[in-house]
Amino acid sequence: MTLVRLTLRNLAGNAFRSWTVFLCALVVAGLTLSATLILRGAESSLRLALKRLGADIVVVPQGAEAKVETALLMGTPATAWMPAGNVGKLATTPGVAVASPQLYLASLSNASCCSASEMFVVALDPANDFTITPWLKQRLGSDLRLGEVVGGARVFTPPGERYIKLYGYHLTLKGNLEPTGTGLDQTMFLTFETAQAVAKGSKTLAEKPLTIPADSVSAILVNVRPEADPRLVARRIKQDLAGVSAIPSLDLFQTFRRQMSGVLRAVIALMGITWALAVGFIALVFSMAANERRREIGVLRALGAPRTYVFQSLLAEAAILALGGGGVGLCLSLLAIYLFRNLLVVSLGIPFLLPSVPSLLLVVSGGLAVALTTVTLAALIPVYRISCQEPALAMRE
Amino acid sequence: MKIIGILIMALAVLIAVVPIFYNCQHDGKALTLANGMKVPMKCFWTAMAAIATAVPLFGIGLLQMFSRQKETRRALGALGGVLGVMAIALPTVLIGACMHPDASCNLVMKPALIFMGILTLGLGVASMALPQKLAGQPA
Q: For residue A281, how many other CB atoms are within 10 A of its CB?
C-alpha cells in the first residue's frame, strides 16, 4: 500500500478527527487572511486617497479639521467656510507653489430635487486645481464645462435618466475616477461656475435653496515647491493666517490611523489566542488519535514498515488536513470579504480597497503557510512519540 | 454525525431568514407610482423568492441526514447544488436588487444570498464526491 493511499484511508477512517483538524486549519487560515486583508485594505485605501488628493498641505478653517477629514475619508458631507482672500495670501507665502481652493457642499436628504441623498459635493477652481483637472485633461481631453461633473467610482446617473439632479439642476456625469475605497468614491466634483449656477437655480428648482456664502471657500489644497519642507510651510501658514489650520498630508487622517493601530493590536491579540487554542486543540486530537491507534501502528511496524514510513504517513495526514482546511478557509474568507466589502466600510467606518492580484496571492500563500505550520507543529510531538514506540510493546498494551 | 445534511438545513434557514430582514420594504422604502400608489421594490420579491428556494433546500438537508444509499445522497447533493445556484441567481440574474449601492439589500441581502448559494453548491458537490465515511453517513 502506498503512503498516499494509506494516508487517505486513515483520513476517511476517522471522520471526527479529520473534520476537527480540518475546521481548526480552516479557522486559523480564514482568520489570518481576513485580518490581513482588512488591515492592509484600509492602509492601501488611505494611501490612495492621499495620492488622489495630491496636495502637500490641506488648509481648513480652524476647528473643522475632523469634519473635513471625515468627509474626505468616509464621504460624509461637511460644510466649513473661511474667507476666499486666504487663497491670495497663501499663494504669496514662501515655499507655496500652488494654492487651489475648494467648496464643500452636500445634496439634500431624501428630496426629489436631488438624485442622491446627502452626497458630498466638491467644487473646484479649474484655473489652479491640481487634483482632478490634470486627470480630466488626460482622460477626456478637456476641462469640466458648465453643468458637467465627475464622480467618484460609486457615483452614477440614475437608471433611465440622462442627468444627475442636484437641487433641481441637471448635471451631466462626464466620467468616474478610479476607486479608492474611501469617501472620495461617493463624492461628486464640479467647477465653481457650476456650483454657483446650481445655487442660483436652487432658489426656484429645489425644495430648499443651496447657500454658498459670498467670497468664501471651504478648504485650500496647497502644493509646496520641491525644495520646501511641507511641515515647515504648514507651520508658517498657521503663523501668517489667523483662523485656519494647515495639515501636512502626512499628518492627515491621524485620528483614523490611531484608531487603526488600536484595531491592529486587538486583531493581533485575537489571532494569537486563536492560534494558540488551535495548536493546543490539534495537539490534543492527535494525542488522542495516537493513543487510539497504538495497536494499528504496532501491527504496521511489525509487518515491516520502517519508523520513518509511519512518521511520514501521520505527518502527511496532518499536512493534507491543513492544506484542505486552510484552502477552504482562505477561499471562504476571501469570498466573504469580497462580497461584504461595502458592508465592512459602512459598519466598521473604515475605508477599504481589495489589494492587487499579486499581493492577494502573496497573502493567500501566507495564510496557507500559517495553516500548514500550525497543524504540522501541533501534530509533531504526538506523531513523533507514536512512531518511536516499540511494535511489541504497542500491540501488548 | 450527518454534517452535510445539518449544514444544508442551517443554510436553508439563513437563505429564508436573512433576506426578510434586509430588504428595502423592511427598511420602510417603497416605489411611489405616478398615481401615488406605493409598490415594493424588486429586492422584496427577491426575498420572497429566496423563501421559496429555502423550503425545498431544507427538505433536501433533512433527507440528506437520513439517506443511507450512496445514489440517494448523490441525487440529493445534485438537487441541493441546483438550489444553491438558484439562490445565487435570484439577486444577480433572475430578479435582482435595488440600484443604490448603500441600500441594505445591496449591503447584506445580495452578498449573503450569493455567499450562502456558493456554500450550498459546495456542500452539494461535497456530498456527491466525499467518501461515505467522511460525509458522516452510515456505510
A: 16
